[in-house]
Amino acid sequence: MTPTLDDVDRALLNKLQTDFPLASRPYEVIARQLEIPAAEVLRRIRRLKRRRVLRQIGAIFDSAALGYSSSLVAMKLSPERLDEAARVVNRHPGVSHNYTRDHDYNLWFTITTPPGQPIENEVESLRQRVGADAARSLPTLRLFKIGVAFDMTDAAPGQQRLPASGRAQAPAAQRLSREEITAVRALQEDLPVEERPFKTAAERFGLSEDRLIDTARGLLERGAMRRFAATLRHREAGFVANAMGVWVVQEDRVDEVGRTMAGFAAVSHCYQRPTFPDWPYSLFTMIHGHSKEDCEAVARSISETAHVPDYRLLYSVREYKKTRVRYFDPDEGGVADGQDPVAGME
């Protein structure tokens, strides 16, 4: 059952997802913006965490900018082998999301690998280990939108209101100092819910509060950090349906159509990915709604607006794993301190 949220909860969740301040006392800043006491902000956040609506507050990084490779992978397995295959895939430290979807390609997961670890090798190794009938690696060719921010104010699901601009994926790996790598490790952790959370986070990794905040701002300005924000458990937040829309779009229309699709508020992700003879879908959108009917209404609106009649909605049937990628973490198979995480880094 979805927890009951009042108007202040909803306003707070919107603020945490979209406008989290990189400041010494961020919860006080949010309290002033919402015109409520800071103690109430802390109390509500703790309660939303206990009720499993709020998953985490932390940094979302650009994998490629940090020198990592990532890809969406689709595998085709017989239904009776899905659960065991998912357990094998989940054990890979680079797998962050893993779902069953209602398609012949029925196991879908994202995988991220550190520098020097070719992602194709990891995908093929997993395919062999689980005995998949087929596997498709679907890396991002062009990113039009990525930003999972659920509007808790119940806006119309098909509403268009978010301008988007496409860019090439795989930006050049940035030159990170050792201090910046340490900051990445600190910022990817769940931010404490206390008066000066960045102070606690910094001290755990041997940094000062000011240096951590300044470094975070710099990583954000350079695009290595996409955003610092809260992530929600979408089902507990009331968005019980999510569909991966896959669209057949001719190459010469990808830019135009991708920008149009990304403009829909209910679309959290929009990418161009490779096509194959048995997979003609070049654009992918993640659509979230309060119901399956919401998702279908958004897809119809996208189809009509973008003039793309050939598409499918693939619904997640089961969630096997959902977590964040951990960067430069030796415990997770990442790059340890003292190693060169990216060629050319300082």
Radius of gyration: 20 Å
Architecture per CATH nomenclature, i.e. the level-2 architecture of the domain at 65-164 and 235-322: 2-Layer Sandwich
Strand content: 15-25%
Largest sheet: 10 strands, antiparallel
Secondary structure category: alpha+beta
The CATH top-level class label of the domain at 65-164 and 235-322: Alpha Beta
Count of individual beta strands? 12
The largest sheet has its strands arranged as 5-2-4-3-12-9-11-10-6-7
Unreliable stretches, pLDDT < 50, 5 or more residues?
156-166, 333-346
Shape descriptor reads: globular
Order of helices and strands: HHHEEHEEHEEEHHHEEHEEHE
Helix content: 25-40%
Count every helix, treating DSSP H or I runs of 4 or more residues as helices: 10
Gap between N and C termini? 50 Å
- What average pLDDT do the residues reach? 88
- CATH third-tier fold name of the domain at 65-164 and 235-322: Alpha-Beta Plaits
Which descriptors would you attach to this protein?
346 residues; alpha+beta; Arc Repressor Mutant, subunit A; Alpha-Beta Plaits; 10-stranded antiparallel sheet; 32% helix; globular
